[in-house]
Amino acid sequence: MTAPNRLARVVTEVFSPAVVVLVLPLAVAWAATGHDWARTLLWGLEVALFSSILPMLFIIRGARAGRWDGHHVRDREHRFLPLAVGLGSTAVGITILVVADAPHDVLALALAMFATLAVCVAITRAWKISIHGAVAGGAVAMVTLRYGPWSLLLIAIVALVCWSRVTLGDHTPTQVIAGALTGPLVGGTVFLLVP
């Protein structure tokens, strides 16, 4: 394996959707709770549990059982079930947020992630959009909306993630660009429009 491929593999894992969706809810909850550590952990981990941890456990279990080719589910034809389970799990998490009267921005984030994933699922039925790109791009949009324009420097990470997916041969440049635009366009719009 070449040095660029090794770096691309590290980037793909460190900034995988599961990892980003573990950290992003904590960042949004931190702002939404007025920097209250206990409430940040409560709300951030609730979103992370239903939008990252539980779906990822399902994906890993399916990969180990041979249902798909690994924890990134590279084969488009096998992506529907894991992504649908992610949608279902996120919907359960959103229901809990609503019932428990979660902070507005935490609920808006969960709804934005649900909407982005729903659009990616629809696209994936016909074409292999980059979920890595969509999650990375959406995360930068949410962080920027909460923490201000300096957060746009994180676009460099989105570019690195997109590069890694193309370098590893998992996506074409068009697929990663489409993902990187879908995340902020869909997720950012939903995040801003949640009343």
Question: How does this structure look, described?
Answer:
With 195 residues, this protein is mainly α. It contains 8 helices and no strands. The relative contact order is 0.15. The protein has one domain.
3D shape:
globular
Order of helices and strands: HHHHHHHH
Radius of gyration, Cα only, in angstroms?
Answer: 16 Å
Low confidence ranges: none
The helix/strand class is mainly alpha
Relative strand content? under 5%
How many strand units? Answer: 0
Main β-sheet: number of strands, strand sense, barrel status? none
For the record, give the distance between the C-alpha atoms at the N and C termini, rounded to a whole number.
Answer: 49 Å
Helix content: over 70%
Number of domains: 1
Count of DSSP-assigned helices = 8
Mean pLDDT: 96
Key terms for this structure?
mainly alpha; single chain; 195 residues; globular
